[in-house]
Write a structure and sequence with these properties.
It is built from nine helices and seven strands. With about 300 residues, the protein is an alpha/beta fold. It has a seven-stranded mixed sheet, sandwiched between helices. Helix 5 links the parallel strand 4 and strand 5. It is globular. The site of S-adenosylmethionine has 19 residues, from loops.
Length: about 300
């Protein structure tokens, strides 16, 4: 379990790179709700949000983490959507949201609960059209995923948004991503945000030992036969560039549309925040958010290196 850099009990620092990631997540989620509630005849929108690597919800500066960002945006976006509807003489819309929050560390989940409950209580009066229920889990995401999937299935949720903000690159198997996005029981509208520490993976990849290499790439479902692209490359830079493209091409198969955003952590390694969707409109809206944040053009140059 990778938890370095996040000591929630002592108070975690919110670094600039995480702030940028949160800004993109917040702006996209607001747009997502606006688009999904735009049908004037629609009286209710139901969705499930799964924050699989939730953290405690607050940084030591008081800034919100991803679970609180979801709650804040549900409330403020719904208010804006209904104001806009009223202005056009339309009826209001309600949102029913199931929030599933998981962190591997039980004390972190307890902290999250203590941050969410007062916020939800305060919203009950102000946003009567918002109906939120929260399920908290505390376990390794891969272990908890079958129970999460069961909740979503039993609740008949057709719209599901996952935020898989892992610290490294081994917390989610590629088969799990495929199950969420393309599995026979996956919700018709599923989208996934997925953080992946690409440089952490590349740093330790073995170019000399093919057996070790195939073990290192096993959780991504990359077979030895897929590694032909790495053969015959003489310089280390070319080999790393090819390995990075191989990982990206593999992840790209998990959904119809995959939009990457490469983030440099000045105190650590470069990582990706990937958005997976099967709906073209979702990809368009996400790319617009990236563009507005000056991020769209940074990806895909040499070796996929980013900002
Ligand atoms: C990058 S932080 C999450 C930050 C949070 N999404 C936010 O925006 O504030 C990663 C979190 O994942 C938790 N974690 C680490 N390994 C995990 C695993 N295998 N399954 C679930 N949670 C895990 C850590 O305890 C840590 O709180």
């Amino acid at each position: 379990m990778k938890t370095e850099g996040y000591n929630w009990t002592k108070g975690a620092d919110l670094d600039d790179h995480s702030r940028r990631k949160h800004k993109v997540l917040r702006e996209y989620f607001r747009q997502y709700l606006t688009v999904r509630c735009q049908n004037p005849h629609q009286a209710k929108f139901r969705l499930a949000i799964v924050d699989g690597f939730s953290g405690s919800g607050r940084y030591n500066c008081g800034a919100p983490g991803s679970p609180i960002i979801f709650i804040e945006e549900l409330s403020s976006a719904l208010e804006e959507i209904n104001l806009n509807r009223a202005g056009r003489g339309l009826g209001t819309i309600e949102i029913e949201a199931l929030l599933i929050f998981n962190d591997a560390i039980p004390s972190v989940t307890d902290m999250l609960r203590s941050h969410c409950e007062p916020l939800l209580a305060s919203l009950k009066d102000s946003t009567q059209k918002l109906h939120v229920s929260i399920c908290y889990f505390s376990g390794e995401f891969e272990t908890v995923y079958p129970r999460i999937k069961d909740l979503i299935l039993k609740g008949h949720y057709r719209s599901v948004l996952y935020n898989l903000d892992q610290y490294g690159h081994t917390g989610v198997n590629i088969s799990t991503l495929q199950d969420m996005l393309r599995g026979p029981l996956s919700a018709p509208s599923t989208e996934v945000f997925y953080t992946f520490a690409i440089e952490g993976l590349l740093t330790y990849l073995s170019g000399r030992n093919p057996m070790l290499l195939s073990r290192q790439l096993g959780h991504l479902g990359i077979e030895p036969s897929n590694m032909k692209a790495l053969e015959g490359l003489l310089s280390k830079t070319a080999w790393l560039g090819a390995a990075e493209r191989l990982v990206y091409e593999t992840l790209k198969n998990c959904a119809l549309y995959v939009s990457p955003f490469s983030i440099r952590n000045p105190n650590g390694w470069r990582y990706w925040m990937l958005h997976f969707a099967n709906n073209y409109r979702a990809r368009q809206v996400y790319n617009d958010v990236l563009h507005d944040n000056g991020q769209l053009d940074h990806f895909g140059r040499s070796g996929l290196a980013g900002c």
